[in-house]
Design brief:
The complex is a heterodimer of chains A (250) and B (234). By secondary structure, chain A is mostly helical. In chain A, 72% of the residues lie in helices and 0% in strands. Chain B has a single domain, classed as MetI-like fold. Chain B contains 11 helices and no strands. The longest helix of chain B has 36 residues. The chains are: A mainly alpha (250), B mainly alpha (234).
Amino acid sequence: MSALAAAAPTPTPPPGGGPVIPNFGGGACPSHTTFCWNWVTQNWGPELGPRLAEHVYITLIAVGIGLVISLAAAMYAYQRGWFERGFIALSTLLYTIPAVAFFLFFVPITGLSLTTIEIGLVGYTFLLLFRNALTGLRSVPPEVTAAAAGVGMTPRQVFFRINVPLAVPSIMAGLRIATVTTISLATIAAYITPLGLGEPIFTALHTVFTTELIAAGVLAILLALVADGLLVLAQRAVTPWARARLRGAR
Amino acid sequence: MGFWNQVGHFYADHSQLLLHEVGSQVLLSLAAVAAAVVIALPVGVLTGHLHRWSFVAISGGNALRALPTLAIIAVGIGVYGLGFVNIWVAMIILAVPLILTNTYTAVDGVNPALVEAARGMGMNAWQIIWRVELPNSVPLIMAGIRTATVYVIATAYLAAFAGSPGTLGDIIGNEGSYTLAGVMAAAIVAVVLAFLAELLLGLAQGMMTPRGLRLTADGVPGRAYRRAFRLNFE
């Protein structure tokens, strides 16, 4: 489908359910049902499954790039307060821009492409990843770094062999929030580029075909919960000692 | 005509519409945050006070935080239909975990010596919660409400997709009618709105924080400390 058509207005969807219930290839679906399991089984192969896979790789690309940039920025900002303040201000500003608008602004430059939505999604990860990485790097007690220097480590060794490993729990906590946030924003990104689980949602919004809305919505929710759970496990595997300390960390 | 010129003209031509939409967006956000406070505060205070069932606040908060807003809207259309209730519920779900986790963390972390002292003075559980734990938790709880408000204001434009017209989302989600310049103009308004909310709630937080806490909040006993010292002991 043309992505421009997706971006084109449907002024307001008809309130209260609406009269338009098209038959989306779900042969045995009566038009008035809220949820029709037949449609889901028939459309898993051609529609829902591939959309789920797209959603996963959109998220992985965005979080991967965001993590690399944020870690580099946090390491650079470790000794430079001006850079920290600047980066925090910029990423806070980015974070408050409504996602639909953020994605739209890059359309004139990069078109209705995957690149466009990845630029936006990466932008939204900065605040969460950068802040947590820097907090982690700075959380090392001074007596620990002093002891490391005392046994003859160079400042570079202290940083990479003491600060960086000890920052891992905080980085993992940030990664977890950034990942679920990216999964959430990636559904909105389908408004611009028809990829991921947001695509069936926006398609069905125009028609108020509730089966498709519920199926895609529940899949997105499950994806987010599974990703969150997997990252908790990863967090515990990487930092077995830090479980207690991370309780309540944001 | 340059792009920014068009943005400027959009403000001139659509000031009434923008003003109206800002009003609706703020009202929607306030309604959502208020409901979230009503839900999250008692749960957070209770679990924090009892130092038990922390998983309700921590794991429950994390799970709620993972839910994609657009997915909630989509499922909501199927379950309770389009309209204000749809976006309201989605915004409440966005706000609850931030307030809940902060409230639990704050109340749970109140200095046990203070609570013991209060109990020794003969306070009952409600008095301890109301007069010791809550005042001491104001900074963190307010920080949670503040973050939640900013998130909700920045996300409330999704009302346009939940069948609840009136917010800035009507412009942001309708590039076809309002052009990219219009979308930019509305997005700038939304960003300014979020920052204003952050600023105002920061001031409110300062006013609601008990004086004793305000003094130690920045760690440096400054002029306020000395003034209070005289006030209390001379």
